[in-house]
Amino acid sequence: MTRASERPTRRAAIALCASLLILLAACAEGSSSDASQSDDDASRVVAAPSTTTTSTTTTTEPPPPLTAEEVNEELGRGINIGNALEAPREGEWGPVTESSFFDAIAEAGFDHVRLPVSFAGYADADAPYTIPLDDPTMTTPGFSSIWERVDWAIAEAERTGLWLILDMHHYDELHADPVGHGDRFVAIWSQISEYYADAGDHVVLELLNEPQGQFNEDPALWNDLLLRALAEIRVHHPDRQVIIGGVESNGVDALTTLELPEDDRNIIATVHVYAPFEFTHQGAPWVPGDLPTGITWGPDYQWLPIGVRDVSWDSTVRPESSGVAVSFDTQWSAFAFDLGRPIDAAAVTFVASGNTTLRLVCRTDPVVEGAEFALTETSERYEIDTTVCPAESTGIGLMDTTPDPSAMRISAVELCAADGQCDPLFTTQLETLEGYIDRAASWGLANDRPIYMGEFGAFSANGESLLVDRAAWTAAAQRAARDADMSTGYWALHSGFGAYDPATGSWIPELLEALIG
Prior knowledge:
Elements: H1 10-43, H2 68-75, E1 77-80, H3 99-108, E2 112-117, H4 146-159, E3 163-168, H5 172-176, H6 178-195, E4 203-206, H7 214-217, H8 219-236, E5 242-245, H9 247-250, E6 267-272, H10 277-280, E7 302-303, E8 309-310, E9 315-320, E10 323-328, E11 334-338, E12 347-354, E13 357-362, E14 368-374, E15 380-385, E16 395-400, E17 407-416, E18 422-424, E19 427-428, H11 429-447, E20 451-455, H12 467-483, E21 487-490, E22 500-501, E23 506-507, H13 509-516
Helix pairs in contact: 6-8, 11-12, 12-13
């Protein structure tokens, strides 16, 4: 594979051409002088001194800054050095970032690193919210401040020919209280902007990782705050590219609420894609409810489409090629889904089999229950009346009512209107994944903004997730994003989602092939 530092870039090509022009001009001038001297020697004529001197100076204009689209293309394929500088203090969540990481990333063929940094964790709590230049809380040996540590990372990226995205990560207090922490957020960016005023062209800034919390409740809070922070950045970086995403943790559907300044074209929009979430985050201990493990990936496996959430309780739902398998854990557990809007259906039809008795549950407050019916061991088609559900119901559940719960398989689920028109509910896992990426790409085209898929990955669930499934999902996500002209940043280099083992200094071959092959 070609090292990233060896791949020609537009910036390097322009600089090389300029150097060659200057060299050729110098050679031509020297050749002319030598020829003139040779003629004089041959004729033994000494020229009289000239009273006028003519000089020719070759000047080259500096190349124009790269556009957002050009930078996004240069970013290409990247990887996050996560769980390091984003931790409260480096080393608390895993390995300390080493110079060898940058070498390994570049030699593998990646184009950039995304560097999540918890700048807010180093800033004073009170105004003017200073991030100290000499910080006694620094735990990384040899570095006196987070500034020095990031300086080092920027230099390592430049040494290895990598672009670097400097990302503000983990500002939970801001998500919880955007108004109370807004001034602090802006002040932190003012300091970053000034400190890195002379950073190399290979540095890109990312405003905030995954706006969420109160921003989800009122996206206007984020739209107002991003303008304030962006104004501070533009004081020292009028042409540098800035990456900005929407609320709901940089969710694809939240792009519709993102408002970027029309007169600032040096912006790259970002999304994070972990779909289906039940697969990519299975067993992740920080996810509420602890998603069950054992969820497999297959392009033709059945799953819920974009915008429909699995809200089952006390049950394990697993996609299969022939439908969805549900294991009920206790009496009154359920398989349930939520459309996020009124279901507007007169009936739900499906094919199911099992040895249990189910009851329709309407997702509304208070819960409304409907018909009860028993499954058989042989697959049969059922049609359940949903007109008993209130108009505001956003989904339905099939709740087990037996004291000794069993399991069922369900497929061919359709929501039917009063006129008999039915729409299929299930789709495939691959269609769900590609659907999110396609929606982001469509938004980018409609709004004339390049898209960076800054995070995607599948959690290892402490080794319980099949590596072959993780690699297949990763390859599908990478391929779909690259086909949509997106740059990508895999989450992450090491730890739970990791594609690289710092202990051995080696890549996990299946994941590296999925990302670079």
